[in-house]
Amino acid sequence: MASGEEDDPIIQEIDVYLAKSLVDKLYLFQYPVRPSSMTYDDVTHLSAKIKPKQQKVELEMAINTLSPNYCRSKGEQIALNVDGTASEDSNTYSVKMMDKQTFTSIQSTTNTSRYAAAIFRQGELHVTPLQGILQMRPSFSYLDKADSKHREREAANEGGDSSQDEAEEDVKAVTVRFSRPESEQARQRRIQSYDFLQKKHAEEPWVHLHYHSINDGRSDHERQYLYCQSMGGSENTELVKTPKEYLAMLMPPIAEEKIEKPAGPSNVLSMAQLRTLPLGDQVKTLMKNVKVMPFANLMGLLTPGTDSTAVLRCIQQVALLVQGNWVVKSDVLYPKNSCSPHSGVPAEVLCRGRDFVMWRFTHERSVMRKEIAGIIKLPPEDVKDFLEHMAVPRINRGWEFLLPSDSDFIRKHPDVAQRQQMLWLGIQSKLEKVFNFSKEDLAPKKDQPREVVHMSGEQRLKAARERARQNPPSVQKDLRAPPQGQAGDCVSTGTGVRVKEEPVSDAEDEPMDTSSAALANGSINGYPSSATSSPTSDPHNGHAGTPAPSPSPELRDFVWNTFRKHYVLTLSEVKRLFNLHLASLPPGHSLFHTVSDRLLQDTILMSHCKQILVPFPAQSKAAADEQKVFAVWETGETFDKHRQVLYEIFTKSYRVRRNAIQAKLTHELGDQSTKADMDRLLKECCVSIGGMWYLKGTLQS
């Protein structure tokens, strides 16, 4: 050691001070495209601005147009390409010459914890950590602006057809194609996409700065903050680390690389990982993934020897008892501020609907999906999700609860069962207020058990006639006789049955519910099915049937506002928008309890709209509701005539070219039709693909 010290003697000791005055404000600017001998100190800085979160800086510097090295003709040509010939305040170059250039920063490194600016004075070294290291490079955004001007001029010369088609394509993707809400994976991909990041970066506002040259008095004042301000303060402590510890801080040892395990699905958790969690989290994770489980199976999945009493305390926090089995609570699956991945319905509405399905299974082994959807009035995808969580479809029995009743658990734990029963009574009272029903309305009669059978139309007709004769007068007074001159083979009651044959509506082999309650309701997702409407009640079939109920003011307002926003809609799209409107209503709101297809169509026709008879091709696979196209006919403005001419065109063909529409408008309206009117008309009512134009909603994939 002695010889080593002699070979490397200490020449001088220097005190090092940490200056913190500019610790969050100090940036190092680098100019990689400029030689170090040619600084920008003497160049006039016109403006400066920064986005602090992104550490993005823009500097505007003047160009010496009087220099012999400056090409005046090139500068004037660039200004002409960028700004054109017009003189406006928004022009990039106000003097019709490129007299300035912009420098934009990029980060040299994202981690500046190892970098600092140091200044040496009188045997003392003062160090200030850097907030960021930025490279300033010339920006050529003015060339992009020149390209945009060039494209605009070309589009104007060509009449704007191609640019209009491209613009309409963009509009179609946003306003015409009503796609489902994105999944979590799609949302993550979108968040990580370049376009999304660019949009987020653009949202941060610029902070404008004042530039002071190196010889300015304000710069001298700020440079004083590079020195430590409290030289004798208590914060300046000597380094008490040992040489080995100090060396380890300067050069930390290389950590051994851990062998990464193969990445598995995000929703898969191994049993070994599961058992490292607290007991409450174990139970919650299992129930959230399995959704329905007997208590004995739950105990088998936990660590052997786990106290069953502690598990019972945990399970009651995240699940409810249904037929002796535990079903995960709705608020665990749908946390607050979340929404449906299918329809975008808020979590609060989803929880109420799922609680109703769970409550029904506490009293019945099987339920009918149409009956559930008619009460909770949620989109079919969400109702199907609720049922798939806890039931399976059975032929001729609807949806049956997934597991057999666990009477052993109820017998072994009567206190838990009693507590859960009291909890369900409280939930039932809330559901009755929300959905406006009583338990007696849904429970089948004891002496007449509810039967679900599959009947033909003739069998149901005979049964309805027999039931009509046996009903007491208080019920028969609601029966409506068929019109004079027609066979009395159709009976429609407000409380009895509908005798028109109904098809099976569910693709997963769910049977037809022929009980009186379901048939009286006759609705799918809040709408009576078109199959349940009696022929005598259709105003378009030539029969003078029962008069339809008049629409409520609220329904007329909904239809009016919807068509003033979308202009052209198919009946299926109106239904979808109406379903979303129902789901957004406050709890207990029974405004649109029974709205049939006929009432909805009549309301549309009463709202200054007309049905457009679009001649769909014979091979079209569109459903009947998708082929019923309605459009705004009169709004009281002069532009109505343009729309009416357009609708007349689409009664001849379901797709047309733009020039055909333009020719028809010119022929009918003459000079009243302008290019702006044409663009507005297509944007409001049509969608374009492959150079052809379609009415909204009529474009088939």
From TrEMBL:
Residues 513-527 have a biased composition (Polar residues). GO terms for cellular component: RNA polymerase III complex. GO terms for biological process: tRNA transcription by RNA polymerase III. Residues 445-701 form the DNA-directed RNA polymerase III subunit RPC5 C-terminal domain. It holds the Pfam family RPC5_C. This is DNA-directed RNA polymerase III subunit RPC5 C-terminal domain-containing protein. Residues 528-537 have a biased composition (Low complexity). Residues 145-156, 442-469 have a biased composition (Basic and acidic residues). It comes from the Eukaryota.
